[in-house]
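Following up on my earlier thread - several people asked me to post the actual chain instead of describing it. Fair enough. Here it is, all 135 residues.
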Amino acid sequence: MKRFILLLLAACCLLKANAQQKQYTEKDYARNPVWIDMTEDTSANYFEAEKAYKIYWQHHEKPGGENDVIGEHAEREKIPSKHKQQKIQQDNKMRMAVKKYEHWHQRMFPYVQKDGRILTPSERLTLFEEQKKNK
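Reply from S.P.:
Thanks for posting it. Predicted structure:
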């Protein structure tokens, strides 16, 4: 019984590892904003996420800045069309995703290894403790 549980646990771990290591093509990068998922994946490659972000925006129009026009928010509330309201909501979500990516991009840069791997939180803590001891 213990062997069965261990085998089942090992199989689940392998499936999870395979799911996290999904390989994307440049077509995937151009069609879908996979860079959003990459920023949330702790095992993602920094350079691949950067590449996915750049390729996606080569094929899509980046949403403008938030509240570019004075009174724009009040004007949005007057829009009667459901389609236009959905478009605005999608733009707002994408705008937030872009901000989140840019923040992630800056925050992770110091922890990027030569191969694009990002140090895990435990590795970062170890590095911090080593630097603290050397001071």
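The two ends are 52 Å apart (CA to CA). That should answer part of your original question.
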